[in-house]
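Hi Y.,

Following your request, here is the sequence exactly as I used it, all 198 residues.
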Amino acid sequence: MRKVIGGGAEAIIYYDGNVIKDRVKKGYRIEQIDARLRRFRTRREAKVIEKLQKIGFPSPRLISNDDKQTVVMEYIDGQKLRDVLESLDYERICGEVGRKIAMMHNHNIIHGDLTTSNMILKHGQLYFIDFGLSFFSAKAEDKAVDLHLLRQALESKHHTIWQRCFESAIASYKKESSDDVIKRLVQVERRGRYKGKA
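Below is the corresponding structure, written out as tokens. Let me know if you'd prefer a different format.
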């Protein structure tokens, strides 16, 4: 039996043993543009998941994709990192988060929504989920923005420990990835602070 387990502005998420992501029609968009956008985003998400499988990255396995609006993926049955991070060895786990992000970025995959709600712990393994906003890019700017979004998410959801968490993630990321991204991250964060004062 299929049941709704989540959703947002873009899609409804169902569970029937697997995860079914259905990108819903938007009545306010011109029909042809809406169909084209849903098709593009559905295909892109499927391609990202396929690439992650090829590189052995811990994420849901792609089961099927209709090339229009629906992606079916493996269900990862574990605990959302959001709910358990503060009760665990969070510096060690965030070091692992940094390593995993570096692995994605080294293959030019940008997640686009790096929050602890999109990370799952299962039997000690850390999985990343929800690649609906993901895309391919080799640009240091895009990778730095991805890291900046992680910082914002940690600060918002885990405000008592976010600094140590982010420092651990960045320290691990640095060991695995390009200095260019870290240099760009400093610029991105500076821009963010400037906007906040404007």
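DSSP finds six helices and ten strands in the chain.

Thanks again,
Q.
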